[in-house]
Amino acid sequence: MVDYFRAGYPEEVIILYKRLKLHQIGLDGKTITFVLKSCTELENLYLGKGMHVDSLKFGLSGDKFIGSSLIVLYSKLHRMDDSQGVFKEIIDKDVVAYTSMITGYSEIVDSVAWNAFDIAIDMLQGNLEVNRVTMISLLQIAGNLGALKEGKSLHCYSIRRALVVSDYILETCIVNLYTRCGAYQSAVATLQNSKGTAASWNAMLSGLTRAGQSFDAIHYLSVMLHEHKITPDSVTFANVISACVEVCYFGYAASIHTYLIRRYIPLDVVLATALVKVYSKCKKITISRHLFNQLIVKDAVSYNAMMYGYLHNGMANEATSLLNYMMAEGIVPDFATVLSLLAAFADQRDLVRGRWIHGFGIRHGFCSDGDVENHILYMYSVCGKPAAARVIFDLLEQKSLVSWTAMMKGCLPYGHGDEVVQLFHLMQKHGEKPDSMSLVTAVQAVSELGHLNGLKQIHCFVYRSLLEKDKITANSLISAYAKCGRLDLSVGLFFSLEYRNLDTWNAIISAYAMHGFYINMLEMFKQMEEENIQPDELTFSTVLTACSHAGLVKDGWRMFNSMTSVYSVLPQEEHYGCMVDLLGRAGHLEDGYKFIKLSTLKDKSTIFCVLISACRTHRNTQLALAISKELLEHGPQKPGIYALISEVYAQEGQWNEFTNTRARANLSGLKKHPGSSFIELMEQGMC
């Protein structure tokens, strides 16, 4: 029996045990222990419970070896209540029994894992030493729970007992603990005070990347190389390349690739997949495909990365072709494949391919998964098919909070605010407690409808649910109160917040701008600077738009120039448009024209139209006609541009040019779709 088990034949162990049991020979504790280990290998709960019953029949329930084996079995199958029951029955608990129980808790990410620390205390009180294996499990539990205080105590204990000396695995666990708890300085200090290995540095680099501290991850690669003289491995480079992707630091990622080539370091699947992602992000899809083709062994992760690259670059046909090729090669798509395709088609509003992947999911059995169902629901919602989304939603056997939120978010862009409100009510009736995402969606719906009372009721619900400190919810409430005409409530909520992030400042700046308090808006911008909050593209769009409406030309120029010179924010089309509108409203039409010509934008047609509108307002027909001719010389334009240019010609009585412009629009197959609007007649309550 022992030989069968050690040779890797757990099924034969079970068969042999049944024969022994039939003849009632050799049924001792050692036999049952090895049979239980075989059940664990097979992850067979039914057989394991049968062995548990046999141990009780034979009077071996208190045997510490059998007990430890049962604990390992139940823990591996996430039956911690059963493990706890067996643990209590063991009469003479040793280090193995305690460690088995603690290791079981390390396999789950749940609040019940806090029990492991109590078990460790009992172990110490029983004069048993915590060994290396126990310590590794406890550190993993502390990391899973974010238990920094307990983690530091474990670190101190390991130092006192000299467990961490020259034990690189234990050191890596300690670094991983600190990074998962967000204590990056402690992780760095641990590495600085030890020789360290690539594995321990990898733990910190991956933790920094997961936490969004990508620049720090990039910095510590240099520290690792130059100060500590540690040779990175493929996982190290993959972590740093992933960090480069997060912050769009593509040049550094390319330099790492060059370093690998010069050092003749082969690309394994992990490293090549990371490079595929980074080149896809920076629009170099040909290099991504070349790296992908170089992989001798490809797995589902590498295929997913390549498909994501195609989708990110608008090459949906290539992505679906690669999916078919992947299956032809015998590699089974996983849930990540289907989820990434659904998310991409939803972002691109590609209903045809979204339906195709829906059918693919049905054919291959992916649609029974809750996450896939929610992505399908969201895809139909954002692709303009809320009715189809509602059918799928109604057919869901179990509606999770994510399902309710996806349905609500899907209704929002199409003016179905009332339906969002109804879903919000219905969700609570079904026993689902709203989280920050569902609350934000409901807040957006009532603000679009102008339901101030409903908004106040949601705000009360936020306080009752102890979510008032949640930044996402608070920021949405600040914006919503401003939209409902209550700037005073927006300001009051803003100043009541203990911590404010960039989105909070953007919300209050936008609120002041919306209500025409431009001086207050500029003061808030200055205060934001004083608190060392870095403005982003949205901040400048709001401020420049407000300066345009207020005629603050000098302030507008100062803000625009500071984008690149002070904050390293690259102006986009929207920012150029705001500046042209500002100059146009102020009558500085020639300055506006020069500004556009000097801009770095490839397509300047939209902001030229802004200037044409300003020329019409100020009756500068000569400049308007010159710009119109310049636009028409650049080939086919958007329907709105043709309409605007034809109006310029009509205003000047140049009817031949008017007719020609209309004819060009018709020949190009362009149509200007009429808009629509509605008025909300009745305000309804919310909570």
TrEMBL record:
In the UniProt record, the signal sequence range is none
Short name of one Pfam family: PPR
**Which Gene Ontology BP terms does the record give?**
RNA modification
**Gene3D superfamilies this protein is in?**
Tetratricopeptide repeat domain
**Repeat positions for PPR:** 299-333, 400-434, 501-535
- For this UniProt record, give its keywords in alphabetical order, as a comma-separated list: Repeat, Transit peptide
Q: Which InterPro entries match?
A: E_motif, PPR_At4g14850-like_plant, PPR_rpt, TPR-like_helical_dom_sf
Task: Identify this protein by name.
Answer: Os02g0670700 protein
Which source organism?
Answer: Oryza sativa subsp. japonica
Provide the taxonomic classification: Eukaryota, Viridiplantae, Streptophyta, Embryophyta, Tracheophyta
